[in-house]
Amino acid sequence: MRLPTFTDLYYQGPQNIGNPDLKPETATTFETGATWEKQGVQLTTSLFHRLGRSTIDWIWQNGAWHTRNITTLNTTGGEISAKLKPGTYLSRLYPVESIHLTYSYTRMNKQETNFISHYALDNLKSRFTTELHLSLPLNLHATTSLRYQDRNGSYLYYPTPASEPFEKPYQPFWLLDTSIQYTWKLLTFSTSVTNLLDTPYRDIGSIPMPGRWIMTRLELKLPLK
Q1: What is the pLDDT of residues 92-151, one digit of tens each?
Q2: Which of 56, 90, 102, 216 could form an S-S bond across to 81 if both were Cys, CB 3.0 to 4.6 Å?
Q3: Partners of 194 in the β-ladder
Q4: Whether this model's pTM surpasses 0.90
Q5: Domain positions in the chain
């Protein structure tokens, strides 16, 4: 059960209007899964089904967001992942430490669809990720991850800050991240690049997500006496 917050019930703003008549949100979830592991290979799978009732969401109506209860919101999904450690069955000098692949899918059965949902109906439909961990010469470690994401639903697009918004569906996208780390005695130097290809995308809501983002860190670990 999720009780409505003070904001859900009573907040009044330029584009947000609370609803004091909201009911608590309830849900029942069923989940099962299995894991198999042998000689550097690990396979995991899981399935779930969620029965949602009176789900609380913000709905776009008459130029503002209003809170209301969505009567029925059932969700079914699953995930499968594989983790490989080549060093277990190949030479220990093999540069690939591990490879991790994950795919998840979610299907939402919504009773009402004639409105713009703020977040409850914008579920992540399909997601695929792969991570590659490398152990390189000169005590270097590198990680590269590739992610594909496809989200249901839509968002309000503002051509200009002063113009009226209109509804646009979410578009699927690919993101590539990478990082490298070097350790020397008590010092660790690392650099990571998020969204390496500078892909334009929106994840949740109308705000564009950041483009290419580079972060560098220097860490000193002092032993405790």
Answers
A1: 657 888 999 999 999 987 655 566 776 667 788 999 999 999 988 888 999 999 999 999
A2: 102
A3: 213
A4: no
A5: 33-48+72-220
